[in-house]
Amino acid sequence: MSNAQQSVTQQSTGAEEINKAQLAAVLQILKKYNLKNTEELLKKEANISDGIGTQGTLQKDSNVNSVLTGYKSDGDPETYANSYRELKFFVEDSLDIYKHELGMILYPVLVHMYLELVYNGHSEKAVALMNSFGPEQDTYYQEDLKKLAMVTKREHMSGNELADTFKSNQFIIRMSRDTLSLLKRHLNDKKASVLLNIIQEHLYFDMYEGVARNKSQIDATSGAVGGEAKRQDNKAKVYYGIPKAPDIQTLAAPVEEEEGEGGEQDNPEKKYMILKKKKAKKDPLFSKKTKSDPNAPPPDRIPAPDLKDNDKLEKVKAIREASRRVTLGQETQLSVCCYTLLNSNNTVCCAEITEDSSMLAVGFNDCIVKVWSLVPQKLKALKSAQQLQDVNIDAEDLMVRIMNERSGEVSRTLTGHSGPVYSVSFSPDRTLLLSCSEDSTIRMWSLQMWTCLVVYKGHLFPVWDVKFSPLGYYFATASHDRTARLWATDHYSPLRLFAGHFSDVDCIQFHPNSNYVATGSSDRRVCLWDCTTGNHVRLMTGHKAPIHSLAFSTCGRFLSSSGADCRVLIWDLSHGHLVAELTGHEKPVHTLAFSRCGNILCSGGLDCSLKVWDFSKITEDISSEEVNVSHNPDVKTGDQYLLRDFATKSSPLIHLHFTRRNLLLAVATFDGSNP
Amino acid sequence: MNVQEKEKLKPGMKNIPKDGQVIMAMMKEMGINECDPKTIVQLCEFVYRYATSVLDEARMYANNTKKKNLDVDDVKLALQLTNESSFTTPPPREIILECAHVKNYTPLQPVKPHCGLRLPPDRYCLSQCNYALKQSGATYKKKTNYVVTGASTGLKITTKPNVSYIKRSSTPVGVTKQTVAVPKPKITTNLNMQPQKTVLKPKIHITQNTQIQMAHSNNSNNVSKVMEEIESLKRKREDEDDIEGT
């Protein structure tokens, strides 16, 4: 089970050349900082005379940094095309079982050859290389190649995100031991120094024991910027289970005791009765949940805010509602209620519905957030300070009394951002709303006063997504600055910085147990981060285009992701494997939702259709298969899981939400321009 | 006639001005073959505005060196500076990773028991009172233009040519502690330094636990008058801030 790095070793004159150049660079640095003793020592040890060190190998125009980037090459520009062609023939001529795995090195080698040529000033050669071999790469790389083809001068390289990524990170390729030894043998035979350099410097082979993979297996996990995920990335243990809810049974007990002892509550008898009654009624329901999940994190793994009486009452309400829930499945089809936003074409950025389905918030690109009430109760504001003085604080319906009855409105507008609002998120207790915007701030609004309370600053670039944790208190954001951050409402600066993506982080989602955060990025990778340490614990590759939406399954074990590649992928978080690929959408998929019972997955997107997938069947098929860390399961595909397909009238879907009773609420914007 | 109309509707290259055509050519080179006609208009607009702003800046540099005409170096400098300020890219991944490592080193703190909304310290919240009352000092007395009627409330408002301050006499009679959280005036006599923006309203009108009590004044008219004046001053202050900000 040695999974140590296995890099191609080689001894050639090329390597010595590089060494010399590097030494010279180090010498130059030493000189720059006036470290004379060290410089002399190094010279002595390396047997370098002054002449060679500074003027000999180093050309004057190339500065220190450029040498260290590793693209400095004395290779003859003519040899590049030939050595690529040779490599290609070698791949094509090899045995069928190794062919596809070997083929994986073609793309990174081509990219690095191109960049090396550009860097050394052979623009025409580079363009010719790209034109002759670019189009034959896999289709999902074409977009990137197009972006890279715009880099034709050395000055362009520094500003190009992709070129930077390729330059400073190794491209990761998973390969079986046999394939790798075959490749090594070939490289040693050929002694093509250009190729050897690139493979040694810029590629990383993650070797595994076993049979080489076939084309479809490779295609399933390739496509991300920076190559595949290393096995090391997915080794850490993930507590994906849902902890036993600190449920009313345990909740009600302390409350009862407190109040029984003649506590501070104002109306102990009444509340006591309510709770007792509910407890008695719901007992059978709670007992189902009492078995604890072996994969659940310890309850104190992440500091959680203590529940207030209000939260407890809310939970009781939620459970009561849940008992009337319809269990969906193949027999019981789901019903959908779609809210269509009219006259809002091209102005709506996002939408969100509260957990109890009572409010809808929509973020617009003209900097405002609008909140609608979806229930007959109107949106009321707090009374003014003078009036609040008259409110009897001992009253049991205090929360009702402090609201101004006459201020009820069906919708309210929140103004304050100075850029398009890209995402909004309600707090679980529905008193707060978070919004994030192009102006790089996150704002927290009070839904009682209807004003902005706090402006969280920290990101330096547009913030694409914001999500409240299921616990409340914490929230997470994703930004163009390639980071995701974890915040707490009472901290002005972020608590955690999740860094590692190569490109924008486009979407973010809290695990139902709040211990983890999943992010989807434009680098086509999905990442799972541990909130306690800030490290990534899962890295999943397989998407071929930016990711727009993420959703955790109700059980917490699976993660579904979707994006511009029009597919919905299901990942198993226990080992980080791709387990299913749901195709059928024709345009980018922007929203995903799991039913409350966990049997159904719904996806909706720009193609104006809502697809319903049988998730319980997927999990059944998976559980019948033996899965471990090293063995990749076969990816389930096909239409066998598609249950229903709802079409809307030219209204792209932007949000999906299951009510507590499993009715699906969809939010769509009517696009009147192309009926 | 029908034919003519059709020809007009056709997005022919001839109908589009030269700049638009250039932009279309650029987009084609970038691999964008199809787009909303509005896009071209908007990009044209961007090009014009960008060119204008760069040239404006270049002219400023030229004026600064007392040259009569723009030359290439001015434009180059302007381009370089606008590039640095407006076309920024996120910091390199390595730096972010380092920051993350430092940040994530501290463990998550336990959540403190708390009543009500969990908000950051007041100075980071918008609910905070963000104006300062000034101790009325001898230096101001001469310049006082008017004193609010009902001086017994303890609130004196002075106006100055540029800046207006709300002053509090040394013995705060009518203003209870909760009313206006007065950061102990570290008298900032420097008029150009305005430490905080004046937005008065939120604390007083909305929050539950704040209230204005005018102990020594039974006349409610007085109160409202003072309030009005504070409001108007506040507006004035804001206007001034805006002007300074631009």
TrEMBL record, chain A:
Domain TFIID subunit TAF5 NTD2: 75-203
Start and stop residues of the WD repeats: 414-448, 456-487, 498-539, 540-581, 582-616
Chief site of localization: nucleus
Protein's cellular compartments: Nucleus
Alphabetical list of CDD domains matching this protein: TAF5_NTD2 (cd08044), WD40 (cd00200)
Gene3D superfamilies cross-referenced by the UniProt entry: TFIID subunit TAF5, NTD2 domain, YVTN repeat-like/Quinoprotein amine dehydrogenase
Record-given protein name: Transcription initiation factor TFIID subunit 5
TrEMBL record, chain B:
GO molecular function, one term: protein heterodimerization activity
Keywords: Nucleus, Transcription, Transcription regulation
This protein's name: Transcription initiation factor TFIID subunit 9
Alphabetical GO biological process terms: RNA polymerase II preinitiation complex assembly
Pfam families named in the record: TFIID-31kDa (PF02291)
Localization annotation: Nucleus
Keyword Manganese found: no
Family designation: Belongs to the TAF9 family.
Principal location class: nucleus
GO cellular component: SAGA complex; transcription factor TFIID complex
Record InterPro entries: Histone-fold (IPR009072), TFIID-31 (IPR003162), TFIID_subunit_9 (IPR051431)
